[in-house]
Amino acid sequence: MSGRAQLMWDEAVTGYDFGQGHPMDPVRLELTRKLVGAFGLDRELEIVAAKPAGESTLRLVHREDYIDAVKAASADPAGADGSYGLGTPDDPAFAGMHEVSALIAGQSVGAAEAVWRGDADHAVNFAGGLHHAMPGGASGFCIYNDASLAIARLLELGAERVAYVDVDVHHGDGVQAAFWEDPRVLTISLHEHPRTLFPQTGWPQETGAGAGEGAAVNVALPAGTGDAGWVRAFHAVVPELVAGFRPQVIVSQHGADTHFEDPLAHLAVSLDAQRSVQMACHELAHAYADGKWVALGGGGYAVVDVVPRSWTHLVGIAAGKPVAPEAMIPEGWRQDVFARTRQSGPWRMTDGLWPVGYGDWEAGYDPADRVDQAVLATRRAVFPLRGLLP
Predict the structure, then answer these.
(1) Active site annotation includes 193
(2) DSSP 235-284
(3) Catalytic residue among 62, 122, 131, 132
(4) How far apart are CA 323 and CA 317, in angstroms?
(5) What are the backbone dihedrals phi and psi of residue 30, each rounded to the nearest 5 degrees, phi first?
(6) 231-286: per-residue pLDDT in tens?
């Protein structure tokens, strides 16, 4: 079920640093890369450092005036133009911001190119998944929208159907906005309900417009949703839509902030459920997209205990060498964690909840259950637009 895989990595991506005290601590990238190495996954895939996204690539999604504003803020952070969302508490300006943001975007674009051209079956950029950036502005810790840029590059190369699956706790609003009227891109986002979480979008009634009507799908889950409900919702919506769309490539975003330890959100999902959905995305790529899979990171602010483990599982799955949930974490990595953060790292690659059980949607649903209500709202809003029974 797996073939050649690439891990997109340039150490310079850790320069994506909004400063001390900001939740988006680049140590999460550094520790993930070290844990990937500690499990020997380096030997199972090709490590590739792609070039930064150039201006013509950035313009596939972003407006020229916004790119110019990012460059100006990068050169003079104190003069950042707040009308573009730059220099805000969420997106503080910092020296070199344009360069490192373009580098992260370049890794996702390079991943898409490698998969489309057949240089790799799967490619992972866990530094990517910056899904909130809009065509004309920064938002939610995101400067350039690497996920949208990867998809836009696939379309430029000739792809006619790309499925984007986003399981970050926050709505994938920037990617949805970029392809709102484009029937070639099916965007599916599972996220905490907009009533209780940024960016307050991602209602089930948001289904696209024009030729893209029915190509945007949103599953808005109630705060407190745990493993069984989260995985049930995924399987009640995503596989049927992907099967009907038959994408040529699947691009998935795996923000780790659905976890019950994440400080910025309110779902109650375990590392084991995250691993289960990562495996499901891999299986969907093989079932419907000839194995072509681009996997990205995203949010995740439990930067020691959760993010490195979650994304190491993702890399292992893509490499065809999944890390067993019960695997003990190498002591050398735990020593690195303490030396770097003065925190104690986790001992095992599980939260102790593997395998994750969930009720199959086809076996019936409970109209009084809040998760089932969310699933029903999505199916009723978008499935008929795609010729499917709600």
Answers:
(1) no
(2) HHHHHHHHHHH--SEEEEE--STTBTT-TT---BB-HHHHHHHHHHHHHH
(3) 132
(4) 8
(5) -60, -45
(6) 999 999 999 999 999 999 999 999 999 999 999 999 999 999 999 999 999 999 99
